[in-house]
Every structure is written in structure tokens, then in C-alpha cells.
Specification:
This is Mini-ribonuclease 3. It contains six helices and no strands. With 129 residues, the chain is an all-alpha fold. The protein has one domain: Ribonuclease III domain (Ribonuclease iii, N-terminal Endonuclease Domain, Chain A, Orthogonal Bundle). Helix 1 packs across helix 4 and helix 4 crosses helix 5.
Length: 129
């Protein structure tokens, strides 16, 4: 099966889980704090606003390959039938694009590329502190 042909919102669904797990591992090891503090910190990394900002940084840095950029575009342009919570639709769509490429890399078993992307995402958010 060609994973880049999967519904982009399905890829974003997978990518959301992968990013959330990576961020949780990162902050648990970094902070060694109580769950409420961990949750507050995690929101900085996985919010739609943060993901949209990170996608813009990645795009400006020409980080994505052509195939990955196509997945990002498909994820960003996908019509979601759920309402974006606490954000505008453009921000929500950008975050869906980032999640879609994460999901794509995960399903393609592109482990090195995925780890590089996840580390870059964390670095971008940390630099915005």
C-alpha cells in the first residue's frame, strides 16, 4: 500500500499520536514533574498554534523533500468535518499538514527522518520559550 495515498486526515490522526508520544517522553525525562505540570508543558508543543508556527519554520528552512511537502499540502488542504478547538481554521489546517507528514514518515518506517523531524519540532518550540 502506498501510504502517501492514504486520506491525509488519517495520516494526521497517526501523526498526532506519534508527536504526542514523543513530546510526552521528552518532557517526562526533562522535567520529572507531576502530571499537571507535564500536561501544561506538553500543550506548548502539541497545540495547533505551535504546530502551525513550526510548520512555517520547517517550510522556510526547506526541510521537507518534495514527497513530504506533497503530504503536508494534502494534509493542510484536507476538508475536516470537525470544528477546530481554540484556534482558527487556517492554523488548524497547518497543524494537520504537519501531523500528516509525521504520520506518513511513521507508516513508511522512515525512522531516521521521523526522529530528525520530531527533534527539530522540539527544538523549534524550545527556542520560542
Amino acid at each position: 500500500m502506498d501510504n502517501k495515498l492514504l486520506n491525509p486526515l488519517t495520516l494526521a490522526y497517526m501523526g498526532d499520536a506519534v508527536l504526542d508520544q514523543h513530546v510526552r517522553e521528552y518532557i517526562v525525562l526533562k522535567l520529572k514533574a507531576k502530571p499537571n505540570r507535564l500536561h501544561q508543558e506538553a500543550k506548548r508543543y502539541v497545540s495547533a498554534k505551535s504546530q502551525a508556527q513550526t510548520l512555517e519554520q520547517l517550510t522556510e528552512a526547506d526541510w521537507f523533500t518534495d514527497v513530504e511537502l506533497d503530504v503536508v499540502r494534502r494534509g493542510r488542504n484536507a476538508k475536516s468535518y470537525t470544528k477546530a478547538k481554540n484556534t482558527d481554521i487556517q492554523t488548524y489546517r497547518k497543524s494537520s499538514g504537519l501531523e500528516a507528514v509525521i504520520g506518513y514518515l511513521y507508516l513508511e518506517k522512515e525512522h531516521d527522518r521521523l526522529q530528525a523531524l520530531l527533534q527539530y519540532i522540539v527544538q523549534c518550540v524550545d527556542e520560542r520559550k
